[in-house]
Amino acid sequence: MTYRASIVVPSRGGAARLPHLFDALRAQKESSWEAIVVIDGDVDGSADVVEAVRDELPVTSIVFPENRGRSAALNAGFAAASGDVLIRCDDDLRPTPDYVGRTVDRHSRDAPLGVIGLVQNVFPETPYARAYGTARDARFRADAYRLPEARRWRHWCGNVSVTRETYDRVGEYDTRFRAYGWEDVDWGYRLHRSGVEIVFAPELETPHHIAAVTTEIRVKRAFYSGAAKTAFSAKHGEDVLGARRTGIGAWGRLIERTAERNGLTDLLARARRADAALDRMPRWAAEKRVSWLVESAAIAGELHPDQVANDV
Q1: 94: alpha, beta or left, given left = phi > 0 and alpha = psi -120 to 50?
Q2: Does the reported pTM lie above 0.85?
Q3: Which of 55, 41, 161 has the alpha carbon at shortest distance from 100?
Q4: Fewer Cβ within 10 Å of end Cβ, the chain: N or C?
Q5: Closest CA to 165 of 194, 122, 133
Q6: Tally of CB atoms within 10 A around 309
Q7: Distance between alpha carbon 222 and the CA centroid of its chain, in Å?
Q8: pLDDT tens track for 238-266
């Protein structure tokens, strides 16, 4: 059977998240869709969660016997998909009832498109969210919408879609991006380079129950992302992203020194101390402290990519 849309969901340790996604899919107004959940090593019974809804929803699973990475999971899902429109949807998203229908509508014109729905990060009440996460999330989306088309590929993410024809033209996700980060950016850049227009779809903004709910988690992800950035630059050349500006002003010098002198273990220890102190600090100072650690971690990841583990 060919569906109008195939939703590919890479998942690791998602047993608690997937039921909420299935509730959102159950409410979809568009009926011609399938979902393929690719379980990247079943560490928590996720396969049983998918099996429990198979008689009710058009949901199937592919279960890797071991962790292979998000790129491999995405490739397996898209290879199995039969839909005309391919949607990449993370397992911690909560799509609205018209999500699938509106996504399909975006691809109804003759010219191919790459469609990005930015995510609305939903934070629990944590010191990190109060000091940094909530405000930065709103700022991030506002800045993204102002970008020219030629730079939108940097925001290719966990809530995007293309047609099958476009996916086949660009090709699979690069499995060399094995740890956390940049497999999406790499694919978005290749999509842009193929000549396909990339658009933001405000109507497809989707609530995202974010995993980075503390400074410690956010710092680790920034470090991993920095390490993955080096792989992207090695593949596509330094000119694509532009040279990193180092040590500009007092703030830049502080970031550079912190990155040079601290590895992942040290930065995580600093982040834990920050999480314990943020609510006792003035809001502006708390935000600055988190920003210092996150920005330093991103550069430190570029400097110390050997400290990154693949099992994510």
Answers
A1: beta
A2: yes
A3: 161
A4: N
A5: 194
A6: 10
A7: 12
A8: 899 876 666 678 999 999 999 999 999 99
